[in-house]
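Annual report, structural modelling task.

Input specification for the phosphoenolpyruvate complex:
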Amino acid sequence: MDFKGIEPLPFSAWGLGLKRPLVIAGPCSAESQAQVMESARALKADGRANVMRAGVWKPRTRPGSFEGAGDAALSWLQDAKRETGLLIATEVATPEHVQAALKAGIDMLWIGARTTPNPFSVQAIADALHGVDVPVLVKNPINPDLHLWVGALERLSRAGLKRLAAVHRGFSWFERTPYRNSPMWEFPIRLKAAHPGLELLCDPSHIAGSTERIGQVAQQALDLGFSGLMIEVHPNPANARSDADQQLTPEAFGQTLDGLIFRQAVPTDAMRDGLEELRDLIDQLDEEIVQKLGTRMDIAERIGDHKRLHNVAILQPERWERIMKRQLRMARHLGLSEDFVREFMDAIHRESIRRQTFEGAEVTPVGSKESLSKGT
Ligand code: PEP
Ligand code: MN
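The model returned the following structure:
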């Protein structure tokens, strides 16, 4: 992918005293003056968040739900900043939002997952920001499309913005996954691999969709070398007016951060030199692939036991066809060669069958007459 034209500065050059890992925390939405102030005070007391987030204009899937407090919330955020000294970040989706946020002295803007995929909206925001030097975070588009993510960054870069970072918040996916938004780590990894200078943040709150998995997702991001986190924190999540299920109390936020291990020391210039960093990503991914293969084979063995118990054939060709079709569809989507994915999946299938048959007896080729009758 051609990334010409995006020349973002590292956090260290943002002039805001930001360090890696950067922690951005705060409520999904700014709901009232009291809620904003309570959030800010709690974050200040914890001391680990450098920036407070709060949505002022909320993009909601269905009309009729809380769409943010609007301009009124900007003065609550100003007050919070004045009292606590926290930097403030909010989401912008239109030129009017940009103007109002800049006028209110908001320190950092982000483009949300529903705006990133719309080139008209992103261009309008980029035009409104022309000649303005403000940090802008770009969340990934809601659908898994790397080009839309890159395109949004390019539009901002061409408008002269240099303090740019990408935020990984997961993708809508048609299959059920344990997450609200599937992490599909390969997308941010490919973005980083193609452009090592771009700072990557992770928003584990919108990936997880519930409080339980936030720590796990955040740790995965840190292990992959992400530069920071954006986490939703609300003084009273049960009564939150948006995303109630995924917001942490300030206490739970503190505990979550306590449990995280920042494996990477601040990278030296030499480390940042590209190769080492990319090799770390590859090692981590290879390890995950083998771990996942191990889990998959354990499950295959259990399925084998189950089939034997119920006197069912080991090989179920229609099911395998469905799996293969799905994987090939995904391969096309990810720009992977179909032959490669087919070969890889065939090797996995052969090993699964070997594990399901007694003592790993010789397995005949998939689909052959002999194999179809095996285990009946
Ligand atoms: C948010 O951060 O509250 C938000 C709406 O996020 P996203 O655009 O990632 O859905
Ligand atoms: Mn939210």
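DSSP finds 13 helices and eight strands in the chain.
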